[in-house]
Every structure is written in structure tokens, then in C-alpha cells.
Design goal:
The protein is α+β, with helices and mostly antiparallel strands. It has 18 helices and 26 strands.
Length: 619
């Protein structure tokens, strides 16, 4: 038997086959094709052609077969691609958008903390890779058996191998006012891998005995915690192993804790279905905490508020989110309320930057706000009992001639305050305060109360002195020695000035008579204050460079860090402080959000990356 090529489709077939198994055409041997056929052979071929072939046109049959097989391949390939895409979509949904640790937290939770390790890892930048390499070396030095060592290395290479889905946040929740009401939850990436994690912990010395409930929830109890998990979630609950019952100590069975907590895996409504969760999700950050509206209904909160005499209306009760967010050159702590109280609306407008040209970005501290005095006075009248307010106003008007209502209403615009990096001889820093007001009588009244000297109808001042006290000798052997008192030496080192000019009041502390409304060499950029209700800036570099008692503040702080902490750790802490350019606080224009940020000198690295690099250098 030999293989020959089919004349119709070109496939290899046996020379003994009557037809091609691929296209059905009669098989003609090569020898037959190349030699002169006899009459008998030709007759047989003709007979075979007319008797056995179901398709008279074999060329069309072969083309049809080829097209049919190609179409089947295309359909099969497309089907496989669709299945792969559906599986990929399911995996992405399950990993990033599906189950969440918030699904197993009760909807009446008081406080919920969310830790997004994926976001934290991205904030760590290249430092995370360096830590991973150091951890791999550390694991190899632990002298574990091959199986456990490989498990840890697999987890370092792919955290999902731990059985925990670190692509999803980990949640810590307080669902009541007792510590037993706390819980930690997250998403399981693979139940079999989670079983391996339990086995690894058990090999490490933990006494873990895995049990399973009738609902398929696996759990282990270790010391004061119970860990429960299924194919979707894991939950950690604290519990007291012992409790006083009728004056006697009784042991609490972990099975009872599991039985009570088992319902968390199948909640009809969870924290993920609440407005507080939506509020938490709207705020960016790798570490976030939300205080929900449920906390206002607790007995503890009501007792605390009863001591202050302050009550909150339903409109004022709102969830509050605190969040940490890291970006290149900046670490920001955000406080965001779900809704701003209608009563505070209109108290302030966006800062115009009216007086920013007169304060320097090198000043130690700068604050700016734009206020509406009429709205503030309206708020005061709404919250202070009318009889008390009338008594205050009458007394101030009668005894001091001071129109409090008129003063508050007259403030309508920017207020800017700055503390300079320049110090007087008595170590008092120079300062400046500017306020937009239409009432010049307020300044005159303040000057009179403070006993300032009137220089003109719109300027008042008071000198600043440094006092050098006499250093009396000490005589320990003579108790109750009668010293001759000597007056301290008084030296003028500066002047306080207040005044009124161009519908603005000002107060200044300076070495000499100040140049009012003088432009600063390096004023703060107005664009920083766009859409801000309030802005404050603390210049860390200016503080570190200031001299006190002949030594820079930074040098003294460095010594203290190393003295109070471990030398290397103290040096790292000081280096972190030294690399902060300034700290700023801002309240955005809707009155809902306040940001407190530490701005780094190095704008190429995130603060997380900087800190991790410092810690790696130490350890």
C-alpha cells in the first residue's frame, strides 16, 4: 500500500481506496495517470465514474467541501473567542466590580473603614518593587519547608494566591458600641487557596481546626477571634472566650458566635446598599472612613450631646467621610460631608485674593477667608436665645458704645492673616491682618479698648517692649533673704498698629512703623484659592530655618527626633519633615469638603514612596 495525492482535493490517500475520504472523488493511481491506459482500464474508470460518483462535477464538490470546512473553523473560532470574552468579563466583574467586603456589613453600621491596598500599592510606586524583593529574600532566609516557602513566594508574586482578593478593599466596621460588634471583611479570590492559607498558618504554629456549618460556611477560632469564609467572602469577628454569668466565669463557645454571625453572608440589605457607602465611594483615597448617620441615634452620642446643650436637626445629621490620598508630591487628608447645612450656606463666598499681594509665600503662616457678615449675624440670631442676645447687645451699647450687630454686618469680603518669618528681639514674629469692612468706628473702638495711642483720625499704635529682668544672686544658706527689688530694663523692639483705609481695617506687628498695603516680594499665587471658601498655609521650610536662641529650629528638631526615638528612625522622621515644603488647608466652595495637604519638595515621588524608601534604608 502506498499513499498518493487525490487529484481533486490534494489530500494524501491510500492507493487501494476506491474514493477519497475527504472529498469523495474516485482514486486514480499515479501509474494510471502516467501510462497509456488499456481498453479494460479505461472501461473500468468510466464505469466507476458513472456508477459510484454521487456528484457528476467533482471539482465543484471539492470546492464546496473546502468552503464548508473553512466556515466551520471560523464559526468555531468565533465561538471560542466569545466564550473567552464572556469568561474574561465575568472574571473582571467578579474581581473589580462584583462582590465586595461591604456586602457582608450590616446596613446600620456606625463606622466603616475601607483600606484599598491596590490604591496604596500604586501610591508606593517603585518602592513597592523594592519591598517585594526584600520580602522574597526574607522568606528564603526563614528556613521553611519547600511547600510553605513556595506558598509565600507565590503570594508575593501574586497576592491573589493567598485566597484573598487584594484587588478589592478590606473593610473594618463598627456595627455597635461594644467591641464584639466590630468586624473585618473582604473578598475571597479562591476558596481552595484560602484553605491553603489556613494550612500555612497552622503549620506556623497556630492551633486551627477548620469546621463547617450546615450552610457551607467554614470557620476557625483562634485566641479571641473567629475567622469565617465561603467561596465569596471572609469575615473576622472578635469574641470573648470567657464571660461572667451569675457571678461565675463561663467559657463561650465559638460555635455560638458563628451561628449569630452566619447571617452576615446572606444579608437582604447591606452597607453596600446605603447612601453612606455611596458617599464613601465618591471620595478618593487609599484609606477611608465614614461615620454614618446611624451614629446619631446611639445612646452614647445622645448622652455626649446632652452635656453640650447642642441639638442637631434631621437636616444637620449627615454622614462624614475622612480619606487619605497620595499623589506625586502631595499627601492629602480629606473631610467630606454628604450635605452641607442650609444654615451655613451664604456665610462665605469664594476668596477674591484682595489682600494676598501683601503677604509672602515665605511667611510662616497665612490664612484667607471671604465672609458675609449679614449671613453670619442671621445665623447668630437663629441659634442664640433672643433674650440673651438682647441683654448682650444692650450692655455693649450702653457701657461701651459698641454696636456688635453693626460690626458683624459690616464685614463683607476677604479677611487675610499672616505671620512673618521675621522675629522681633523679644522673639515675637511680625504679623499682619487685613479685613474688608465698611465700619471705621469698629477700629476706633478696638483701639480705645486696647489703649492704643491715636496718631491720626484713622491710625493708632502701641509700642512693644522687651524686658530684661535683674539676675538676683542666690543664697541657699539664708532662707527668706530680703532682696532689693530692681525694675527690669525695658527696651522698645517693635510696634503694634491698627487703622482703617479704603474700606479695609488692618492690624500689624512690626519692628518699625509699617508700610501698610505694601506688596510682598513673593506673594501667594491667587490661583491656589480659586473656588475656595477658606485657605490656610503653614510654611514648614520657613519654620525650620528660623533661629531661636542662636540655633535653627530645624537643627534643634533633628536632635530631638534622634534623642526621643531610635537614632536611625529619628533621622528618618526628621528627613520626612525636612522634605515637606508647606502644609495647606482648604475648604472648597460648596462648603462640603475640606482638604489638609502636605506638599513635598520632591514633586516626582509620592509621600508613600518616600517613606517606604526611608524605611527600607533603615531595615
Amino acid at each position: 500500500m502506498a499513499l498518493i495525492k487525490c487529484k481533486s482535493c490534494g489530500e494524501q490517500v491510500s492507493d487501494r481506496s476506491e474514493r477519497c475520504p475527504y472529498c469523495g472523488a474516485p482514486v486514480v493511481a499515479e501509474s494510471t495517470a502516467t501510462t497509456e491506459p488499456s481498453v479494460e482500464t479505461a472501461s473500468t474508470a468510466t464505469t466507476a465514474s458513472t456508477t459510484y460518483s454521487p456528484y457528476p462535477d467533482m471539482e465543484k464538490r471539492s470546492k464546496f467541501a473546502f468552503l464548508t470546512s473553512k466556515k466551520a473553523l471560523i464559526i468555531g473560532g468565533v465561538s471560542l473567542l466569545v466564550i473567552a470574552l464572556l469568561f474574561g468579563a465575568w472574571f473582571v466583574y467578579k474581581t473589580f466590580f462584583g462582590t465586595s467586603g461591604a456586602d457582608v456589613i450590616p446596613d446600620d453600621a456606625l463606622v466603616v473603614v475601607e483600606l484599598d491596598l491596590k490604591e496604596l500599592g500604586s501610591s508606593a510606586g517603585n518602592a513597592a518593587d523594592g519591598i517585594s524583593e526584600k520580602l522574597e529574600d526574607f522568606v528564603k532566609d526563614l528556613d521553611l519547608d519547600k511547600e510553605n516557602e513556595q506558598f509565600l513566594l507565590d503570594v508575593l508574586d501574586n497576592p491573589l494566591a493567598s485566597g484573598i482578593n487584594f484587588a478589592k478593599p478590606i473593610y473594618m466596621a463598627l456595627c455597635g458600641t461594644e467591641k464584639e460588634d466590630a468586624m473585618v471583611s473582604g473578598v475571597v479570590s479562591d476558596e481552595d487557596d484560602f484553605d491553603k492559607l489556613i494550612e500555612f498558618l497552622e503549620d506556623g504554629g497556630a492551633d486551627l481546626d477548620v469546621s463547617e456549618t450546615s450552610k457551607g460556611i467554614k470557620y476557625v477560632a483562634y485566641q479571641r477571634f473567629v475567622l469565617m469564609y465561603n467561596s465569596d467572602y471572609f469575615i473576622i469577628k472578635p469574641y470573648n472566650q470567657y464571660a461572667y454569668v451569675d457571678g461565675e466565669i463561663e467559657e463561650i463557645d465559638a460555635d455560638d458566635v458563628v451561628e449569630n454571625a452566619e447571617e452576615l453572608f446572606d444579608l437582604d440589605k447591606s452597607f453596600a446598599d446605603t447612601p453612606a457607602y455611596d458617599h464613601l465611594d465618591d471620595v478618593d483615597g487609599f484609606l477611608k472612613m465614614v461615620i454614618t448617620e446611624e451614629i446619631y441615634e446611639t445612646d452614647e452620642f445622645k448622652r455626649m450631646m446632652s452635656g453640650t446643650g447642642v441639638s442637631l436637626s434631621d437636616e444637620e445629621k449627615t454622614s462624614i467621610v475622612f480619606a487619605l490620598n497620595a499623589e506625586p508630591g502631595k499627601l492629602t487628608c480629606t473631610m467630606d460631608v454628604a450635605k452641607a447645612s442650609e444654615e451655613v450656606e451664604g456665610l462665605a463666598n469664594g476668596i477674591k485674593g484682595t489682600y494676598l499681594p501683601y503677604v509672602s509665600e515665605k511667611d510662616i503662616f497665612t490664612a484667607a477667608i471671604n465672609v458675609n457678615g449679614a449671613a453670619i449675624w442671621k445665623l447668630v440670631k437663629g441659634h442664640v436665645p433672643s433674650e440673651i442676645l438682647e441683654q448682650i447687645l444692650e450692655k455693649m451699647e450702653k457701657e461701651a458704645g459698641f454696636d456688635l450687630a453693626g460690626y458683624v454686618k459690616s464685614i463683607n469680603g476677604d479677611i487675610t492673616f499672616s505671620v512673618s518669618n521675621k522675629l522681633l528681639e523679644n522673639k515675637m514674629p511680625e504679623m499682619a491682618l487685613y479685613a474688608k469692612t465698611t465700619n471705621s468706628d469698629v477700629v476706633a473702638f478696638a483701639a480705645k479698648v486696647a489703649d492704643f495711642k491715636e496718631l491720626s483720625s484713622s491710625v493708632w499704635e502701641s509700642p512693644i517692649y522687651k524686658y530684661d529682668y535683674y539676675d538676683y544672686p542666690t543664697y541657699p544658706e539664708y532662707d527668706g533673704y530680703d532682696y532689693d527689688y530692681k525694675e527690669p530694663k525695658k527696651t522698645k523692639v517693635g510696634v503694634m498698629t491698627m487703622g482703617y483705609k479704603d474700606k479695609a481695617s488692618y492690624f500689624m506687628i512690626s519692628k518699625d512703623q509699617p508700610a501698610v498695603f505694601k506688596k510682598a516680594n513673593s506673594p501667594i499665587d491667587k490661583s491656589l484659592l480659586v473656588d475656595k471658601l477658606m485657605y490656610a498655609r503653614l510654611n514648614v521650610q520657613s519654620i525650620l530655618k528660623m533661629k531661636l536662641n542662636g540655633e535653627k529650629v530645624g537643627a534643634e528638631l533633628k536632635k530631638r527626633c534622634k534623642r526621643e526615638l531610635d537614632s536611625d528612625l529619628g533621622g528618618a522622621v526628621y528627613k520626612s519633615i525636612e522634605n515637606i515644603d508647606y502644609i495647606e488647608m482648604e475648604v472648597v466652595n460648596d462648603g462640603k469638603t475640606m482638604n489638609l495637604s502636605a506638599v513635598m519638595i520632591d514633586q516626582d515621588k509620592t509621600p508613600i514612596e518616600f517613606v517606604l524608601n526611608e524605611l527600607m534604608d533603615i531595615y
